[in-house]
Amino acid sequence: MYVTTLLSDQLERYLDLTGLEMKLTAQNAANVDTPGYRAVGLDFAAEMEASMGEITERRKDEAAGRPVGARRAASVERVDGLLERPDGNNVSMDREGLKMAEDQLRFRMGVALLKNEYSTVMDAIHADSK
Fold it and tell me: N or C: the chain end with fewer CB closer than 10 Å?
């Protein structure tokens, strides 16, 4: 049996987006010396907001017995406004280091919240045995 809650579904997407953002940050850092490479990223807040609406709609469709389509992919775009070197590369290791630290904090927080959510679910399941 697979037990989920609205919050666990939202936290799953939160962790997925955080993981994607970490991959993009690592990709940018790995290409710091690649001529012409442009840093990529995503608007985390906008992606989370879109995901929350999508999750709510998917749960409504599941409850109504309607077919549920594939999950929308996150929108990855070039990062504008960064200083460009003469070789056309705009990756800043300072920026990428800060992004990685932010992403790690987000991920740790998401894991802690998910653990708490599943602890609450398990307590509810075992409430009758106490």
Answer: N
